[in-house]
């Protein structure tokens, strides 16, 4: 792994409208690995960047041709930056100095200022976590790899509605472009 000062932990789409569905459905503390990664990064001086999905009132950014996002209002309710659904889940609240990047599509880079923040801080290594593995994690990993970032995916700090899709991605697809570690293995590698 690259020098810690050049790395950042991305917590992606761990917001009420998305994370809440997983936390409520599982009935367990499914966000525990996210919290452990967050605490480890903070304790070691690794910058943390939160990424969320949000739209303007009335959703002018959403085309009716976009199969996934054209249903967003029905599936998630209000998703403007001020709405409850777009707020970071209480289990992993950002500190005032930790940026919250708002994106407009699946990848953390699309429609956001993420790349400007990364460049301004000299970050060349991304540690990825998020919901869903087959959504924001996959799309961000692919785009970040094309942009030549060094990548680590925290396999247990990623959630997907389909456990088999999650397994295939973290075991077969992601290792082609990233190191794939559990949160505990990542923490051990930092020490």
Compile the SSE list and pairings:
Layout: E1 7-12, H1 16-26, H2 32-43, E2 48-53, H3 72-76, E3 100-103, H4 114-120, E4 125-131, H5 133-146, E5 150-159, H6 163-173, E6 179-181, H7 183-190
Parallel strand pairs: 1-2, 1-4, 2-3, 4-5, 5-6
Written overview of the protein:
It contains seven helices and six strands. It has a single domain, classed as Isochorismatase-like (Rossmann fold, 3-Layer(aba) Sandwich). It is of the alpha/beta class and 191 residues long. Helix 2 packs parallel to helix 7 (183-190). It has a six-stranded parallel beta sheet with strand order 3-2-1-4-5-6, with helices on both faces. 40% of the residues are buried.
CATH superfamily: Isochorismatase-like
Would you tell me which CATH topology applies? Rossmann fold
Low-pLDDT segments: none
- Give the strand tally: 6
Q: CATH architecture, please?
A: 3-Layer(aba) Sandwich
User: What spatial form do the alpha-carbon principal axes imply?
Assistant: globular
Task: Provide keyphrases for this structure.
191 residues, alpha/beta, six-stranded parallel β-sheet, 7 helices
Question: Could you give a quick summary of the protein structure above?
Answer:
By secondary structure, this protein is α/β, with parallel strands linked by helices. It has helices at 16-26, 32-43, 72-76, 114-120, 133-146, 163-173, 183-190; strands at residues 7-12, 48-53, 100-103, 125-131, 150-159, 179-181. A 6-stranded parallel β-sheet has the order 3-2-1-4-5-6, with helices on both faces.
């Amino acid at each position: 792994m690259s020098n810690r000062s050049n790395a950042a932990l991305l917590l992606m789409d761990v917001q009420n409208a998305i994370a809440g569905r997983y936390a409520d459905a599982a009935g367990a503390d499914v966000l525990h690995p996210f919290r452990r990664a967050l605490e480890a990064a903070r304790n070691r001086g690794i910058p943390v960047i939160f990424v969320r999905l949000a739209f303007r009132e009335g959703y002018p950014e959403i085309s009716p041709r976009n199969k996934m996002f054209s249903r967003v209002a029905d599936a998630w309710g209000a998703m403007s930056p001020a709405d409850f659904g777009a707020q970071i889940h209480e289990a992993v609240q950002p500190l005032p100095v930790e940026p919250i990047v708002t994106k407009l599509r699946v990848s953390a880079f699309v429609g956001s200022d993420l790349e400007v923040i990364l460049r301004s801080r000299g970050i060349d290594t991304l540690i990825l976590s998020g919901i869903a593995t087959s959504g924001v994690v996959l799309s961000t990993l692919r785009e970040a790899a094309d942009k030549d970032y060094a990548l680590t995916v925290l396999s247990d700090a990623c959630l997907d509605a389909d456990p088999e899709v999650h397994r295939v991605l973290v075991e077969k697809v992601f290792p082609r472009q990233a190191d794939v570690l559990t949160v505990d293995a990542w923490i051990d590698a930092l020490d």
